[in-house]
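EI: anyone free to look at a 208-residue chain?
SC: sure, send it
EI:
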Amino acid sequence: MGSGAGFSDAHCRTASIGAGYKHQAIGGTQAIEATDWNTSGETTAGTSSVLKTVLSGVSVEISCLATSASGSFENTETGGEMVAAGTATVAYSFCKVSQPAGKGCSTPELVEFGVAGTTLGLGKAVKLTPAAGAEQFVGLQISGCSIKALNNTYPVKGSVIATATGATLSTNEIGVTEAGTLTVGGQKAGLTGSLTVSTPVGSALALT
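SC: here you go
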């Protein structure tokens, strides 16, 4: 897998001369898979995804224990910059309403939707937007709340910038909220989560 300096870990985070994990150029269209497994605890544990916002004056938090994605991307040169762009289907699993607690609120345990992504002008980061032709990422359903005003379906719109550390893409709730690019029901929202991107056979894919 190439020569020269490499990495001591499978997620290409820690540089090391002569290590077993090394960069290899990718051309054409590449199928990808991504998972939150092994994105924390020195790549031995998973990372829950958490969406936070305020709806009807109430702090709302949706947490999902597992996240995965599959799709494809292509490397092209644009104005002297190598740009990766593609599409994927994202699945959030084992989701629940964490806040407000004790109010009977629920949300579907499985949520799936399409996204588009590009690194154009971002270096080691990816801008994620709704799939082509879609006005929103997904409609967030909340039901069963004793706080009746929360029972509704909220459009999740806008964009998110995920930063890359090796093969792992991450978002931070505070950073996303401050950027103001993601909204739920028209209100600013934050998203925390991590995904490690690889080929279908398990080779890590890192932005360089």
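EI: Residues 173-179 form the longest helix (7 residues).
SC: 👍
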